[in-house]
Amino acid sequence: MSPDAPAGRFGDGGEPGSFLELLADHERLFEQFLAHQDALIDRDYGRALDQLRVLERELDEHMRGEEQLFAELFSRTGEVAGAPLQLFTGEHRHLRESLQEFERATRDLLAAPPASARPIVELLDEEALFKTFFRHHDERERNLLYPAFDRGTSAADRRAKLERFHRPPPKA
Ligand SMILES: [Fe+2]
Ligand SMILES: [Fe+2]
Question: Quick one: which of 21, 8, 23, 37 has its CA closest to 99?
Fold first, then answer.
């Protein structure tokens, strides 16, 4: 965790052999978003766009991994830890759509760099909502989803499924 990040926000509680390990992914993804915002503040729109695209790809991989586990572990009940699966998939959709919007806005800044800082501040305001939403998603997964993944798997099964998250994606 970076020295600037609030202590205990992400990545604590990632005991080996538990799906709580995945909280470290959340921390890495959040840092990636902050790197995008650093670039925005520097008015380096090309870098801001690159950072966002890396985040979109990595967040998508992470969420697809989770959704694969929904299908494997909870598709019969349609719910996890008392919450409908759609709660989590709906939040994933919202996260994806928000990043697409930010990508569009950053591309516009790159195409026509503004003289005033106002459009950048507006984008940062929108992005602040995303950060709050991301933290809430992190909390729901920390408190509900990952413990349910742990309960739904044997130790060996858990190890194998967690390794899938750490495997590099196949080359396109
Ligand atoms: Fe997650
Ligand atoms: Fe998620």
Answer: 37
Range of the domain at 36: 19-165
Distance from the alpha carbon of residue 24 to the mean position of ligand 1, in angstroms: 9
Q: How many Å apart are CA 12 and CA 162, to the nearest integer? A: 17
Question: Can you give the CATH number for the domain in which 70 is found?
Answer: 1.20.120
pLDDT in tens, 78-124: 888 888 999 999 999 999 999 999 999 999 999 999 999 999 999 99
What would the pLDDT profile of 52-82 be if each residue is shown by its tens digit?
999 999 999 999 999 999 999 998 888 888 8
Instruction: Locate 70 and state its tokens.
Output: 């929904």
pTM over 0.85: yes
CA–centroid distance, residue 10 to ligand 1 (Å): 11
